[in-house]
Write a structure and sequence with these properties.
350 residues, 14 strands
């Protein structure tokens, strides 16, 4: 008797770091692991948050601070959720409008001088979410160039696809976001990238796999299988030999509605920083190397400490915080590497 595949809906944003989800679907890994998956494109992280709360999504690609937002009701309805997997590391950049200055390189003193000489104070920057690595990285960069968040800068949350448009129209002066939205400004010659994740917090956790309450409490077996599936997808995605194929998959599959060269800029590389610095694509996006997928205490503490530094997390509420589920990840890793799995497809490929 054939078992019915588990039907699940996974939310995502059309960013390059949604690649493991796309790979799992396009290469038949979801079916192989016994899932009938609908990948649901969402306009922004607030929509991901709301759809997890109201259980319109079973799982979601999520910014790293979202588990804390939901579990502790930070500017949100409190909702129990977990994450058993980090989907990728790095992947972000800070882009400034060329209206401010077409700086020759990424000398931080020069950039600081240009920004402080600008008459449009306070400068307005966009981030994808106040609970994401984008905001944490922007704060680090502002501190590095000695701009005061209280006096010199205002920060607003914008859906990632809207940032290059707002920059081009002069509504914002810069932004921190994931790809391809920095490359869009670079190729349109409206912006210049001045810093990346590698400069500001190399190896930081970027997106996580967020599970709603029923998968946290009642459907552990399915949760483990899905994590096994996505670890396998991340391994394939991170292989340098697959980057060209992945580029075509994202472009010709219409997963990211941008020209091929814009997607290639960071995924395959080299990514242009300033005018004279270039970063290899494999360093810019890390999907599996460096134990990227493991939901470690170190990664969890990085998220908690960055939220404290950003004054988003009350000090008294931080005792005993734990939203990562390492046990599920380790079970999934064991299942993936088991000899039984190597010679056994759990569900028929119908």
């Amino acid at each position: 008797m054939l078992r019915t595949r588990s039907k699940i809906t996974i939310g995502y944003l059309p960013l390059i770091d949604c690649a493991p989800l796309v790979v799992a679907l396009e290469r038949g890994l979801f079916k192989k692991w016994g899932f009938d998956v609908c990948l649901s494109p969402e306009p922004g992280w607030a929509t991901i948050r709301d759809k997890i709360v109201y259980e319109e999504l079973d799982f979601a690609q999520a910014v790293c601070g979202l588990p804390l937002v939901l579990n502790y009701g930070l500017r949100s309805i409190p909702y129990k959720c977990t994450s058993a997997m980090v989907l990728n590391l790095n992947g972000n950049a800070i882009t400034l409008s060329k209206r401010l200055s077409d700086v020759e390189g990424c000398n931080q003193e020069e950039i600081a001088h240009v920004l402080k000489a600008n008459s449009n104070y306070p400068l307005l920057f966009g981030v994808a979410s106040f609970f994401s690595s984008h905001y944490f990285l922007l704060l680090r960069w502002l501190k590095r160039i000695k701009l005061d968040l209280q006096k010199d800068v205002r920060v607003v949350a914008l859906p990632p696809p809207q940032m290059p448009i707002h920059l081009k129209q002069g509504f914002i002066d810069g932004y921190c976001v994931g790809e391809p939205w920095n490359s869009v400004a670079v190729f349109e010659k409206t912006g210049i990238c001045v810093a990346t994740s590698l400069d500001l917090a190399s190896g930081h956790p970027e997106k996580v796999l967020l599970a709603n309450e029923k998968y946290t409490e009642k459907k552990k077996e399915e949760h483990v299988r899905l994590v096994s599936c996505l670890i396998e997808a991340c391994q394939w995605t991170d292989n340098p030999a697959h980057r060209a194929e992945l580029l075509e998959m994202l472009y010709y599959g219409h997963w990211i509605n941008q020209p091929l060269e814009i997607i290639r800029h960071s995924l395959v590389g080299p990514f242009r920083l300033g005018k004279n610095t270039f970063i290899p694509g494999r360093a810019f996006h890390v999907f599996n190397a460096e134990k990227a997928n493991q939901p470690s205490k170190e990664k969890e503490n990085w998220i908690i400490n960055e939220m404290k530094a950003a004054k988003l997390l009350p000090e008294q509420s931080t005792n005993g915080i734990s939203f990562f589920r390492l046990s599920i990840y380790l079970e999934a890793l064991k299942l993936l590497s088991s000899e039984e799995k190597k010679s056994f497809v759990p569900f028929p490929l119908l």
